[in-house]
Amino acid sequence: MFSDGSLSDSDRSALEKISSNIEFTDKAQVEQNTLDRLSDYPNCLKLLRHYPQIKKLFQVPINSPEERLVFFDVDVLLMRPSNLNVLWEETDTSIFMQDCIRHAYFMSQTTLFFSRFRKGRKIHDRLNSGIIGTNPERYDYALIEELIKEFEGPIFQSKIWIEQSLQSMHAYGKNTKYVKPAQLFVPELNWTPSNGSLPCALHFTSAMNPLRKAQIEQVIQMPQTSSTEHSTTWNLVEAKGYPYFENFLRERVYRKGRNLFN
Question: What does 12-75 look like in DSSP terms, one character per residue?
């Protein structure tokens, strides 16, 4: 169990009661290992001090004891029995979940558009890092250092999506896939389990907090949830490239107060 420091003593105690196999990382050791690994990358260290959520990008892979890193955010909840072997078996593949939000990156679409054509920066469409499956050795901190320097302005002005933006740019060009969106997604505020077949998992992001309890209770009461006879195997789909030109035009048109797109 990786903790960024936000787990209280009561949280830890409750988790330990779930299973005797749960182990917690040593916070001081994790921080020291991370500082040692990033000692030649001042921009990475600067961002680490500035933005607490970036710990997942640095501390988790640097301190992963295994050749295959499989990471779940605590707000990703499994909704039905699932076979997760695909996350470990695709050893040469980086796996992320796909977001339902069209543009969930800290850069504006105009910034992405010009970065793509001026410096060849490429990014995946709709990447969300609520679930990660990858080889920690694939992380190129020299590249991440370069990206932070290039996008320093918007990075340090933003309060959201920094980590998954850098994850997406870093993963581009490597073999990258998503969990099938119908099986795992960020529910919209008006989503209910009756909207369709029960997904394998949901990512209850902070925007969902007001409705999380009611939605979870609805899911628990559904017959599909209690059935353990058959587990669902997670499926993967190919990650798609970001639609730079379309989104650049969309942003420019919106700024003029006109909507030419449906």
Answer: HHHHHHH-TT-----HHHHHHHHHHHTTT-HHHHHHHHH-GGGHHHHHHHHT--SSSEEEE-TT
